[in-house]
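2024-03-11 09:14:02 DEBUG pipeline.ingest accepted 1 chain
2024-03-11 09:14:02 DEBUG pipeline.ingest length=400
2024-03-11 09:14:03 DEBUG pipeline.predict start
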Amino acid sequence: MLRNFLTLSTGVLLARGIHAIAILLLVRILKPDALGIFELAVSIAAYASLAVQQGFDAIAIRETSKHPREVSHWLAAVTRLRLAFAIPVTIAMLLAGLLQMQRPIGSLLMILSLSIMAGAFNLRWVYLAFETPRAPVLAGILSQAVFLGTVVFAVRSPEHVWRAALGWAAGEIAAAVVLRAGRTHAGAAGRGGVSTKDLLRKSWPVSVSMLLGQIMLNFDVVALAAMGKQSEIGLYLAAYRCVTGFTPLLQQFEASLSPPFARAHLKGQELRVATGKMAAWGAAAGLGISLILYLGSGILMEKLFGRDYLPAVTYLRQLVWILPLRVVRMVFRQALIAMHRQVSDTKVTAMGAAATVILDLLLIPTMGADGCVVAALCSSVILAASSWYFVNRDLPQSSH
């Protein structure tokens, strides 16, 4: 397990590092307006991909891990369902692109539709089920390397934004091809054994959680475009990337909390003490990082993205305060999981997603990207506060 964790973590960090370099180069070439168009198209493609991927992987991995001989049946069921969703979703994206051909986003949607079909044939879950993560790791790195190579060698001006989309799609296709070509566990896909209805029934809670997470990730981008504020997307996301750049570090921090919290839960009151200490220390560290980012926001924005993005400093100085809230949310989330309160955690996520959608819809028409900033801050407060509420409601009380 440790070996697989280290392999996956190293691969994810490398892939994200390559992706970060590609994005930093891209934002300087595209400038805010073209960057906004590219990010909008990618966000739309992400929702389309989610409609195809859903929560099938989690269920297939779980069941195949318990019954390895049934992998061919699970492979057949997952592939059938994904193709059933991928074909209409891809057609819808192509039609949307054709209807928008007079605008730059039209060609991007048509190009990115290729990645939807690639995702339908991606066999990453099979390797993870058999605890052989090397191929998925290499495929992820290859995908981002293709994207980076396209940006470096083919994107020279904002008019080349379609080439960036092509590199994105090509990377997804390359990853799917490598994983399918290197398949050693699945064998021939059999018939029967697993019904698509059963797979849908088991996976829908995971699919809902994934949708809620996606809403919190990029609903603001879609809402800005839908309400005629597309020109603000590039600047807003440039500021937000300075905050989300800490995501890999935060994820490793969250993962490290799970074992000690699970052990502390067995001893009752110890989990309350551990949660309080980690939340306090985590919030203090987050505040320190936020203060540094706030004070250096102008320099950071210019050095990373260029002078064209200096107007985004205003957004960044507000968004940095999300970091301590996210750390607190992560601490209390792991406490909920340690207490077997996954349903409470889903409720928390749903509240955060609902706040994001409602506030975006209310504030963007009059405030534009500033409304997105307010919505992001408010949803982060709601996530942290509601997580704290559920944990303290269910934690063992002191006997004193």
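2024-03-11 09:14:41 DEBUG pipeline.report The chain has two domains: 2-194, 236-394.
2024-03-11 09:14:41 DEBUG pipeline.predict end
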